[in-house]
Every structure is written in structure tokens, then in C-alpha cells.
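Dear all,

This email documents one entry for the complex benchmark we are building for the journal club exercise. For each entry we list the sequence lines for every component of the assembly. Then comes the predicted three-dimensional structure of the complex as a C-alpha cell string, followed by one or two observations. Please use this as the template for your own entries, and keep the labels exactly as they appear.
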Amino acid sequence: MAKTLKYAYYPGCASQAVTKEANSTTRKVAKILGIELHDMPKANCCGAGLLTDYDYDLSVALNARIFAQAEEIGMDIMTICSTCLMVMSTANRDLKSDPKLLEKTNAILAAAGLRYNGTIEVKQLLWVLAEDYGLENLKKKVAMPLKNLKVAPFYGCHSLRPSDALGFDDPERTWSLEAVITILGAEVVEYEGKNKCCGFQVDMITEDTAVEMTGKRLLDAKNEGGNCMVTPCPFCHINLDNYQGMAERKLNMKIGMPVFHLAQLVGLAMGMTAEDLELSRHLVSAKDVLKEANLL
Amino acid sequence: MKIKIKISRCDPMGKGWCEPFLQAYDIEVKEGMTILDAIHLVKDVQDGTLAFRRSCRSAICGSCAVNINGFPKLACKTQLITEYRKKESMVIEPLSNHRVIKDLVVDFNPFWDKINKVEPWLNRKSAISHQPSAVSKKDVLKIDNSSKCIMCGCCNGACNTLEIDKHFIAPAALAKAWRFVGDVREGEKKKRLEKLSEAHGMWDCVRCVNCTQYCPKDVAPLQAIERLRAEAINQGVIDNHGAKHVKSMVDSVKRVGRLDEAAMTFKTLGFLRSLGMIPFGLKMEMHGKMPMPLIFPQIEKIEEVKKIYEEIEKRKEQVEVKVEK
């Protein structure tokens, strides 16, 4: 590759706590691929949509504060959370398309001595792999093709919609996650729920809806022959993995579907071990599926 | 060009229930043809028994919403060839999340029940007078998107919460609710927001963004939902898990700059429901997944975040003073 890829790295709150394994694996994978990730120790939470439910101006200003830091180091942002991606991208779309909003936001930021000029882009790991790094280059790094893995891609909502703010993949004809799975040597499983919601946003509000939704997505993938899932979003992972037991109880049946973070699936194909990938942190064990596929 | 389109067929013939199946039709398509043109063509020359709804053919009446290759769209506003080329196939089905009456015709009664539930009329602050009550352009703009709704049902058809919970009030009615809650002349804002905060109400939205993505008139129902929620908190309608969840996030970001999961769980669910989370928490802990309260490090330069909060508060107060004047 001609030029080293550099990003202002924004793992998001979830991957600094509950889904730490997504963060650490991303760092390891990036190192092997030669992608430079620059930490943003000052970066605040994007609000996960909850701040827009409180005060739109506050939400936009806090997101602009994150962008200002990326501008300071002159890099685009790469996140590993779809919700962060959606929240930041919609704020960025509004700021870039509405000069009055940018001016107003900068007047608010000025109170903290900050300014955003509207020059950065927000991306997620999936896009970086599929486009910036490139599938052909990724293929060269595959040491252990994931043969025998039948992977159900789970986009969830926020890496696809609203497409006028995200503008990368087509929610009606997705390709990026499928392409990465294929390059890694695994089989893509098609199923209806891949671009639907995992239910995370109402986990603490209407748990019944959340659990039933999670169960439906998992079962859908399983019924189409999937033996594991992969998602670019840590919130989706929380529901699909951590809430899977609750979904099984609600549906009164065993699902047993291991769910990988995108970086973990990539790392696995690059020959990283289960310890490297911190697979033991998942509530649904991937051991049997990986053994069966001769990948352990 | 000749293409094959598949249309979902279903005829209860008095039984009250039917199993839908896809019927294929070969049709000759021309550039510029819409999906509705194709459906008409099938009915006119191939199969007079096909049932569908349509009226204006100009994306105004909102009658012809169907699922086109799996996604809800107005048949009259969607180009056939463009859509066909996306997948080299064409499947036309009735709107999801609605009971099928026959073929592409679905039962819209639940849709209207939801709209009726939000009382889609203005409850004026003051008695009706013969004087016109002027509304400023800025105030109209706040509810302008919601006013554009043509009640086609695309948003409800795409809604992921409605897929699971048929009692959910759903995006169309919520966008309509904002049309009135956001109206400066409205006198019953708080009462409306209390009702909307009940179970199956506005806080049950999972933010799948499908409503905004598939609205053919740019109503942006999700934005209306966000505005309703913000207005509810602003009016002090906060005795529910949804509003508490938002408030705990607002506090958490102000305090440490990010999401403090342990504190948020506690603040959202309260003491008793948090106790119920303990078995789940222990399982999480076994895998090192339990978020630990208090030791969550705060971000660098948290004072910048606090200053942004203060600036926002200051601006809100200024607006309030202006309104009082």
C-alpha cells in the first residue's frame, strides 16, 4: 500500500467497558494491517442518540467537540461502534450542510475555546477495511481462511441508516460486510434480519420487546443455516450475545449462536488465537463452532 | 424490454385467512414506467382478479404503499427499471406489519386507530376567536415536516418495534403527535406528552431509523420522536424509564464525559429493578463484562464539556426570558 492509513480512533463507550474485547482486538488487527490508530483521550461520548432526545443543540455541540479534536490532529475519525457512527455522521451532515448551524455551534464551542471547521469524515472499521484498506489487500493478510464457517452478517441499523448521512453501503443491497466475510474465506448466510434492529435501545425500557427482537434475529440467522454471526456494532453484540440466554428462555429453545465482533473475525482469519481475540469474554462460547470448523 | 415481476397473491374467499404466494407475470416494460404502471398493466391485460389500492398516481393520496423488493415505497413514485436493476428481480408484496385483506390490500384500521389515539386536532390554549392567530414562520418550520404526512403507512410498515409489538403507537401517529405538541397554539402539551409516555408509547421506539429512511415525503418521523421526547423532559414528564434513561445519560456525560453504564442502569431502572438484574450481572461478571461504577475514568479536559453544557443552559434561559417578555 502506497500510503499509511491513519485515523483518529474513537472506540466508543461500550468498547471501553462491556465490549472491551472489540477495542483490544481492533488495535491488534490494525497493527498487523499497518493501520495507525491515534487515540483521542479528550473525546467525549457521542450521546448514543440519547442526547438528541434531550437537546439537539447540545448533542451537535458535543459531537462537534469530538470532530474538532480530529481536525486538530488532521485525521478522519474511525469508530468501531455503529451507533457512534450514526450519531456522529448525522451531526456532521447537519453541520456541513447548514452554515447557520455550524456558526451557532461554533459560538457554543467558543465558550470552551474550541472550533470545528467542518473538514473531517467519520468512518467505521467495516468501511475502512472494505474501501480504504481494500479487499484485495485484506485478502493478502488471510493466513487461515475461515472455511466451514457459515457466517450470518448482522449490520443492525446504524451502519446503514439514515443513508443520506452515512452514504456508504446501500441498506437495500448491502455488500460490505458480505464482501469482508467472503474475503476471509467464510461462507455468507443470507437471512431476512441482517439489516434490522437488535433491540438494544430499549433494553432498559421495554425489555420484553428487546429480548424478543434479539431472539428473532438470532433464530432467523440460525434457520437459514448460520453457525455464527458477525456484527460491526458493540451494542448489537451486547444484545445478540449477552441477551441470547434471555432470548432462549423467552422462546423456550436453545439457539447457541456465537457472535463475533468484526475485528475478531478478521483477526481469526489472520491467525490470531482465541486468547488474542479474548473470545472467553463472550457469554455464548464459540469453541464448539470453531473446533468443528478446524479453526481451533 | 420484457421482465418477470412477482406479485404476492392472497384471497381469503370468505374464510378470513389465506396463505400468500408469489405469482409471476411477464410484462413489457418501457423507460419511465412506475411500479404502479406495471401493476395496472398486469390487472388490465393479464389478471383482472388482482387487488390493490391506488388513487392519485402522483404521490399525494398515500394509497399505493407496497413492499418493493422488501422495502416499503409508494408504487406510483418508484421507477420500475431502476428498482429492477438493483437486484435483477422484482417482488411486490403488501406492506409489512399489516394484516392482508386481499393481494396487495392491507387492513388500515389499526393504522387509523393509532392516529386517532393521539387526537389529531388542535386543543387551543385560548377560546376560538374570529381574529386570526398568527404563527411565526420559525414556529411553523418546527412542525412543518410532520404536516407533510400523507398517511401512506410506509413508516409503520418498516417499523422494527411494530414488528414485535403490535400495540406500539408507531411512527406515523408519533409524527402526527408532534404536529400538535410542537404547535405554539396547543394548550394540552403536557397532557399529550404524559399519554405518549405510557407503555407502547414514544419511548418504545428502538431507533431503527427505518421510518425516516422510507418516508416518501421527508416527514422524518424519528426526528419528531426525538423532539417529543425532548419536549417531555422539558415539561417535566420524566417519571418513566425512557426519560430517566436519557437524563442519566445527560448527567453521565456531564460528569465523566462518557457513558457510565453501571450508574445508568441504576438510575434508569431504580433500586428494585436493578436488584432483578443481579443474576444477569453475575453472569456478566464471570466473563469480565460487568461495568464497574465509580472507577470509570473521566475523559481529559472534562471542563470543556462542562462549559458547553453551561453555554447551552445559558442560551435556554435567554430564550425563556424572551418568551416571558
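Observations: Residues 302-324 of chain B form the longest helix (23 residues). The domain at 2-106 of chain B is CATH 3.10.20.30 (Ubiquitin-like (UB roll)).
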